[in-house]
Amino acid sequence: MLITIIAKITDIALGILVTIYIVLEELIWENIAEPIYTFIHGLSILHKAEAFINELNRHVLLVLFLALFIQVELLGILALQMIGTGNVIAGAALYAGKIPVAAFTFWLFRISKEKLMTFEWFKQAYDLVISVIVKIKMSSIHQRIAARLKSVKEWLKIRLYSPRLYLINLLKILRNLKTFDKS
């Protein structure tokens, strides 16, 4: 009996954690942070910075990366704590404010990954994190929640398609009205 209760509580806790992970990955990373990362990566001024970073000593890169990474992770934890304690707007604002720094940190990691992986402990920690992410994504609870989230997203797309189409057509009509002409 006690084992069944502990198993159910564990399932609920894992469900909550996996849901948070999926929301952060799907909504925040894919829709917000990844486009910022792509934008940052495409800036021509950063090509010079990339060349400069490639010339840096691996120890300097490690300190720079870890300082940024720790800052971003602590801000994320603080933001989630604020949201969990009822300060939803402040927590969401803090989380949104950390996204550009996280995207920059991700960019820095991508261009300095080869040098960072020369630290054996760093490589082992990275491999451990990747294996945990893979295990989470392969878990049945993750797949159930992801499937449910996908069906909700599809349902929202269908429900929001007509209003969105209506707004697009309305904007086209408004653009074509002579009252908005500058002449």
Which helices and strands, and how do they pair?
Layout: H1 2-42, H2 45-55, H3 58-84, H4 88-116, H5 120-138, H6 140-176
Helix pairs in contact: 1-4, 1-6, 3-4
Structural description of this entry:
The protein folds into 2 domains: 2-119, no CATH class; 139-183. Helices cover 90% and strands 0% of the residues. The chain is built from 6 helices and no strands. The chain has helices at 2-42, 45-55, 58-84, 88-116, 120-138, 140-176. The N and C termini lie far apart (79 Å). The mean pLDDT is 80.
Order of helices and strands: HHHHHH
Structural classification: mainly alpha
Given the C-alpha coordinates, what overall shape results? Answer: globular
Kindly estimate the percentage of residues that lie in beta strands according to DSSP: under 5%
- Per DSSP, the total helix count is 6
Record field, number of beta strands: 0
| Overall average residue pLDDT | 80
Low-pLDDT ranges? none
Summary of the model, kept short:
The chain has 2 domains: 2-119, no CATH class; 139-183. It contains 6 helices and no strands. The protein has helices spanning 2-42, 45-55, 58-84, 88-116, 120-138, 140-176.
